[in-house]
Input
Amino acid sequence: MKIPYAVLFDMDGTLLMTEQLATPAFKRTFADLRDRKLWDGETPSDEQFTNVLGMTIQQLWDTLLPGADRHVKETANEWMLKHEIDLLKEGACELYPGVREQLQLLHAEGIALFVASNGLEAYIDAVCEQFQLKPLFTDLYSAGRFHTKSKTDLVAKLLADYPIAQAVMVGDRHSDVEAGKKNGLFTIACDFGFAKPGELEGADAIIRQFSELAAHLPFPMLHHR
Output
């Protein structure tokens, strides 16, 4: 059965205030690497950690661990995931204001909701579990689950798997805008995440707080205006 309307959401910096989670998780991971003599370079700055959010897993570790071998990067990735899930359970992180209300509104309108993230499958699953978002989403797509090379490829796979008549991409990085545009979607950029000035150019709409989302969707809706 065809899905009339759908919204695809990035996770980090779009739904989740990820820096509250990622920065301490990265620091714990680099401490682990040092303790086990797997890395003796500098620990990246908070800004460098924030800059890699939204990258694919491979790009992220290639940036943070230049010159490290594959085993070290895979080990770092496993520890990072463990620390992120531990921090989630410790309550270290929150959704952006308005996220839950907007998702509930769209779900009540019968709009299909999806996650489309470059993160690991277990991480996306843990976030949705922690904040009890799973009942609102039709499916959770991640680069970790499907081993896609880019956000564009991930969105293309989702659109191939689900018969969606009209979809919107929502995200906070250039890769989200690009994924939306290259797949022919209306694209809404979130200018409260990790984007640098000018990074979101080309989006059809830009919102500065999540509560503005429904008002910018190009769908006929009953309750939001």
Observations:
- Residues 19-89 form one domain.
- The chain is about 45% helix and 15% strand.
- The first strand starts at residue 3 and ends at 9.
